[in-house]
Amino acid sequence: MLLLLLLLLLLLLLLLLLLLLLLLLLLLLLLLLLLLLLLLLLLLLLLLLLLLLLLLLLLLLLLLLLLLLLLLVLLLLVLLPPAPPPPRLLLLLLLLLPLLLLLLLLLLLLLLLLLLLLLLLLLLLLPLLLLLLLLLLLLLLLLLLLLLLLLLLLLLLLLLLLLLLHHNHHHHHHSQ
Questions:
Q1: What is the value of pTM for the model shown?
Q2: Which residue windows are transmembrane per the record (predicted)?
């Protein structure tokens, strides 16, 4: 009986060691994944910043173009012989409308680009997040297993102690 218990204890200890090793490996994996996620997020932020900068530059260029056109129109209005007011205004509007449309189109395009980028990044991040979740679940399961094994170990030790006490008790009686 005693030998059996000792063997069981040894086995349990080995199992515990294995589980601990597994836990360590899992933790390492989790850390690596987290690092990857962080890197991806940083890249995403950088890309977004670059896009925003581009957007701003484009807007500035468009504004400059608009200003130039306005100057041109004003020059034309000053240089051209005076005419009845409505045509002048009409001319100005006709010049400005296509430009405004262009500006709107560009803005829309940029927004679409941003959305696409975000979607792509989400797609990249999703599998990683899922993996992280799975690993965390595994970790929890392993921890539970570890706890169970520890409990078993404790029980066995108690049993062993009881047996030893019993054994000693018997011995004592016999010697008397």
A1: 0.50
A2: 35-55, 62-83, 89-110, 117-138, 144-165
End-to-end alpha carbon distance in the chain? 25
CA distance 95 to 99: 7
Helix (H/G/I), strand (E/B), else coil: 80: coil
Which 8-state DSSP code applies to residue 176?
Answer: -
CA distance 129 to 161: 48
Sorted by where each begins, the domain ranges of the chain are 2-175
Helix locations, the chain, DSSP H: 2-79, 85-175
Tokens of 93: 């509007």
pLDDT of residue 86: 63
Residue type, 17: L
Which of 167, 175, 174, 173 has its CA nearest to residue 1? 167
